[in-house]
Design brief:
alpha+beta; three-stranded mixed sheet; two-stranded antiparallel sheet; 6 helices; 7 strands; about 30% helix; about 20% strand
Length: about 210
């Protein structure tokens, strides 16, 4: 089973944002079924013990003692605050509002850059350790050049699949800007839920601010 055409994701993106979202068309159902089927060949394992990073804007206060006097100093958020809070879960690339999703990066710098801090902003950074092997789908394959995809006439099945998954990776990698319309997240939110139902623990994709996946 493979995708109908190299631009299958782009058609799906346009359809769920502008045509049908909750009542899916046969074309949308077929696309998502193909995503689930082809995801099996992109399965990877993140082994227990791997270290990942998360950053959040803001800071907390910590009490210090010096010369018998107490005073407060700025400190990072406590561990509980660095985890997703269900009551504050907003729309993201992989989750709709109200459903928590933990976004982590393989590099500390990537985690900080992903939250787009303004100059002078305070940022808290947390380190997470994977406690058990995780079953991930890897979207971070090298994409076919966009210009070539427009000029190409005959597509081999593996090329079509590679291009569609490349487009999926790009969609997950798009920078999150303040004030983004939540409708822009709908296509990837749907795909993330399909992959979750398929048994995956998470999704690995290339950040737009780093050469590394995640």
């Amino acid at each position: 089973m493979t995708f109908k055409s190299f631009d299958s994701y782009r058609k799906f993106d346009r359809a769920v944002r502008r045509e049908f979202r909750y009542a899916r068309t046969p074309e949308q159902e077929e696309f998502l079924k193909t995503v689930a089927t082809t995801s099996r060949s992109r399965s990877i394992t993140m082994e227990a013990g791997c270290v990942l990073w998360r950053a959040q804007l803001g800071y907390n206060w910590r009490e210090e003692q010096q010369d018998g006097q107490s005073f407060e100093v700025q400190a990072a958020h406590p561990p509980a605050r660095m985890k997703p809070l269900a009551e504050k879960a907003s729309d993201g690339r992989a989750n709709p509002k109200g459903i928590t999703c933990l976004y982590l990066a393989t590099e500390q710098e990537t985690a900080v850059l992903e939250i787009r801090p303004l100059i002078g902003s305070y940022v808290s950074v947390a380190q997470f350790k994977v406690l058990k092997d995780l079953h991930l789908v890897d979207c971070s394959a090298v994409k076919i050049d966009n210009l070539l995809s427009l000029l190409k006439k005959n597509w081999a099945l593996e090329e079509t699949e590679k291009q569609v998954w490349s487009d999926i990776n790009i969609a997950f990698s798009k920078p999150v800007e303040r004030g983004d319309d939540s409708i822009n997240y709908v296509p990837t939110q749907i795909i993330a839920e399909i992959l979750k139902l398929s048994g995956f623990d998470g999704i690995a994709y290339k950040s737009s601010v780093s050469a590394q996946p995640g």
